[in-house]
Design goal:
about 220 residues; membrane; Transmembrane protein 249; transmembrane; transmembrane helix
Length: about 220
C-alpha cells in the first residue's frame, strides 16, 4: 500500500546525508538484480559509520485530522438533528485508533561498522539484518490519464516503508536524489522497473550454499 511522507524526522550521523511509498509488503523479495558500477564522474563522499533516523509515521497526523473532522461534524449533526450519527462516531474511533497505533517513535539505524541495520519501535528492537536486505528504491505510480509519477522510499525485510520524497513527475530529479541518498548511505538502489540497468548493487546476498553451510556448519565433518 502506499505510504505517506513522514511528518517529522530527526537525522543524526557521522557524515552528511541527503534529506529526503508504493510497494509490496516489507518482507517482499527484492527485484531482479543486474549489478552495475557507479558512474566515476562523481567523487564519493565519506561513508557514515553509523546513520540514525528517528521519525513518526505520518498516519498519526492523518488520524488526528480524521478524529477532529469527525468530532466537529458530529457536533453540528447533533445540533441539527438531536441525534448522533454512527458514521461520525466510526470516524472518530478510526482516527483515534490511527493516532494511538502510530504514536510511538520509529528509529532506523544503519551501522556500517557491523554491516547491519536495526529497526526500533518504541525503543524495542523490531528487526536486525544485513545491509543487502535494506534498499533505496524509486517507485512509479500511474494516474488515471496514464502519466507516471515518481517517489522515493527506503524499504527492506520487516521494515515499514519510509517515504523520502513526495510524488513528482520529474523523473530525473527523483532519480538523482535516489542515487545520492543510496550512495551517501551506502545502500543498494533499485529502479522502479524490476529488471533494469539502472539498479546499483553495493551489497550482494550470500550464495545459497554459503548460507546453508553457515546454518549447518556444526554438523559438517571433514
Amino acid at each position: 500500500g502506499r505510504e505517506g511522507h513522514p511528518g517529522r524526522m530527526a537525522l543524526s550521523g557521522l557524515a552528511r546525508t541527503a534529506p529526503g511509498a508504493a510497494l509490496s509488503s516489507a518482507g517482499s523479495r527484492c527485484p531482479a538484480l543486474r549489478p552495475r558500477s557507479e558512474p566515476p564522474r562523481e567523487r564519493a563522499l565519506p561513508l557514515p559509520a553509523v546513520f540514525v533516523m528517528e521519525y513518526y509515521k505520518d498516519m498519526i497526523w492523518k488520524g488526528a485530522l480524521l478524529f477532529l473532522a469527525s468530532l466537529v461534524a458530529s457536533i453540528f449533526y447533533f445540533r441539527a438533528t438531536k441525534d448522533f450519527s454512527v458514521f461520525f462516531v466510526y470516524g472518530m474511533l478510526s482516527g483515534l485508533w490511527l493516532v494511538v497505533s502510530n504514536v510511538n517513535k520509529r528509529r532506523l539505524l544503519i551501522n556500517h561498522l557491523k554491516g547491519i541495520y536495526q529497526f526500533y519501535i518504541k525503543g524495542i528492537l523490531w528487526q536486525e539484518g544485513p545491509l543487502h536486505q535494506i534498499y533505496v528504491r524509486l517507485v512509479a505510480q500511474r494516474d488515471a490519464y496514464g502519466k507516471l509519477f515518481y517517489t522515493l522510499i527506503i524499504n527492506g525485510y520487516r521494515l515499514e516503508v519510509l517515504t523520502l520524497a513526495e510524488l513528482s513527475d520529474k523523473f530525473e530529479q527523483i532519480q538523482a536524489l535516489g542515487h545520492r541518498v543510496a550512495r551517501n548511505l551506502n545502500l543498494n538502489y533499485f529502479d522502479y522497473e524490476d529488471v533494469s540497468l539502472r539498479h546499483v548493487i553495493r551489497h550482494m546476498p550470500p550464495e545459497k550454499y554459503e548460507e546453508d553451510e553457515a546454518e549447518n556448519g556444526e554438523n559438517v565433518s571433514v
